[in-house]
Design brief:
The protein is of the alpha+beta class. The protein has two domains: 215 residues, no CATH class; 137 residues, no CATH class.
C-alpha cells in the first residue's frame, strides 16, 4: 500500500506528539486557537492551545463563539483569518533607504529569513485556497519570490470538516468538506462512544515520515467508516449553496442586471470581503519617510478592489460606483478568474458572508442574478416575432 493511502489513528494525546515533533524539526506551528471571542490563527507551542470544546455559530453578518460538551478540537467553522496571512502577509517591508551626512544613499533589502511553517487544522476549502494562491503567486510569469519561499517549506495538516456552518458552501464549489490531495497529513476528528480520536491519512512522503515519529495505531474498519460517514454527512448539511449553473455564463450574461443596483444600495464598499477572502491577492506599495527625509521605507500591503483608488487612473477611478466595484469583485471571483488562472477564485468558505457588516450573501446574489437572467430570457422568447 502506498503512503498516500496509508491510514492510522491518533488518540487525543497523539496531537501533543504531533506538535512536539513539528517544533523539534524547527517548524513554526500555526493553528486555530481561541482569542478575543473568536477562533483565530496563531503560533502554537502545544496542542492544548487548540480550541477544544469550542464551536461557532455563524450567519450572514454574524459570528459567535459557543461552548461544546464533546471537547472536539476542530468542530468550529473558519474564523476571520485564513492561511494567506502567513503565506502572503497583509503588510511587509520590502526595502529601506538611508542618506548619510555626506549625501550617500544606502538601500537595504528588508527580506529576513522565512520561517518553516507547519499549518495544523487547515480546512479543505482553505487547502484549495492555498492551491489557488500557488497558481496566482507562484505559478505564472510574474512570481512572488517571498511567497514561494514561505510556501515551499510549509507542512500542511488538514482537518476535514464534519461541522459545516450556516454560511459554508464548499460542497457546491467542489472544495470540501473532504480533502483529496495537496496535504501532508489529513485528520478526521471523531468523538463518539468509541472515544476521542483522529483518523489520519498520509498525503506525502514528509507526512509519512512525521506519522512514523508520533504514537499511532493502524486504522480499524469501524473508525474508517465512521470518518467517511461524518464527512459525507457534512456535505449534506451545508448551510448555503451556489446555484447549480455555469457561473461563468451567468456572470457574463448579467453585467447590466438590475440586481447590481440592489446590492450596491446595501454594500458599504468597506472591503471586508476581500480582506477575509483566502484567495484575494491584490496588493499595493507605499513609501514612508521620517521627518528628516534621511530615512525612507517601501512597504507592500493588501489592497482591495472596493477601494475607490484601486482603479484610479489620471482623471479619476475607473470604477467610481459601488455597483461597479461589487460587480468587479463578484464577476472576477466567479468568472474571469478562470480566464486568468484556470479555476474559480471562490472556495465556498463563507467568510465573505459571515464578516460582511450588512450580511450580503454571495450565494444569494448569484441566485438572484440567475433568476433575473432567466426571466429576461423568457421575456425575450415571448416577444420574439414568429418567423
Amino acid at each position: 500500500m502506498s503512503q498516500r493511502r496509508t491510514t492510522a489513528i491518533l488518540e487525543r494525546a497523539g496531537l501533543d506528539d504531533l506538535v512536539e515533533v513539528l517544533r523539534a524539526q524547527g517548524r513554526t506551528v500555526i493553528g486555530p486557537t481561541v482569542r478575543d471571542g473568536a477562533v483565530v490563527l496563531a503560533e502554537l507551542t502545544a496542542a492544548s492551545q487548540l480550541p477544544f470544546g469550542w464551536g461557532t455559530q455563524v450567519e450572514a453578518g454574524r459570528y459567535r463563539l459557543v461552548p461544546r460538551t464533546d471537547g472536539a478540537a476542530f468542530a468550529h467553522t473558519t474564523g476571520p483569518q485564513s492561511w494567506k496571512a502567513y503565506l502572503h502577509p497583509e503588510r511587509e517591508k520590502l526595502w529601506s533607504a538611508d542618506r548619510t551626512a555626506d549625501g550617500q544613499l544606502t538601500v537595504t533589502d528588508e527580506r529576513p529569513p522565512r520561517p518553516s511553517y507547519a499549518f495544523l487544522g487547515v480546512r479543505p476549502c482553505d487547502l484549495r485556497a492555498i492551491a489557488i494562491q500557488d497558481r496566482v503567486l507562484a505559478g505564472g510569469r510574474y512570481r512572488d519570490r517571498d511567497y514561494e519561499e514561505r510556501r515551499s517549506g510549509a507542512f500542511l495538516v488538514v482537518a476535514e470538516c464534519t461541522e459545516p456552518g450556516a454560511t459554508c458552501f464548499c460542497a457546491s464549489m467542489g472544495s470540501g468538506p473532504g480533502a483529496d490531495e495537496g496535504f501532508d497529513l489529513a485528520l478526521t476528528e471523531l468523538v463518539d462512544e468509541a472515544g476521542h480520536r483522529f483518523l489520519v491519512r498520509v498525503g506525502s512522503d514528509a507526512g509519512g515520515e512525521l506519522l512514523s515519529a508520533v504514537a499511532h495505531r493502524p486504522a480499524d474498519p469501524g473508525t474508517d467508516t465512521a470518518a467517511h460517514h461524518a464527512v459525507d454527512a457534512a456535505r449534506e448539511r451545508m448551510g448555503r449553496a451556489m446555484p447549480p449553473v455555469d457561473l461563468r455564463t451567468l456572470m457574463g450574461g448579467s453585467l447590466d442586471a438590475d440586481r447590481w443596483d440592489d446590492v450596491a444600495a446595501r454594500c458599504l464598499t468597506c472591503g471586508n470581503c476581500t480582506m477575509v477572502c483566502p484567495t484575494c491577492f491584490c496588493t499595493t506599495t507605499e513609501e514612508v519617510t521620517d521627518l528628516s527625509g534621511d530615512h525612507a521605507e517601501r512597504w507592500q500591503r493588501w489592497d482591495s478592489c472596493f477601494d475607490l483608488d484601486f482603479s484610479y487612473l489620471q482623471g479619476g477611478p475607473v470604477r467610481a460606483s459601488a455597483r461597479s466595484r461589487y460587480r468587479q469583485w463578484m464577476t472576477h471571483k466567479l468568472s474571469t478568474w478562470y480566464e486568468q488562472f484556470g479555476s474559480s477564485g471562490c472556495v465556498g468558505c463563507g467568510r465573505c458572508i459571515t464578516w460582511c457588516p450588512v450580511g450580503i450573501d454571495i450565494t444569494e446574489e448569484a441566485a438572484a442574478l440567475h433568476d433575473e437572467l432567466a426571466e429576461r430570457l423568457r421575456q425575450d422568447e415571448r416577444t420574439e416575432p414568429e418567423r
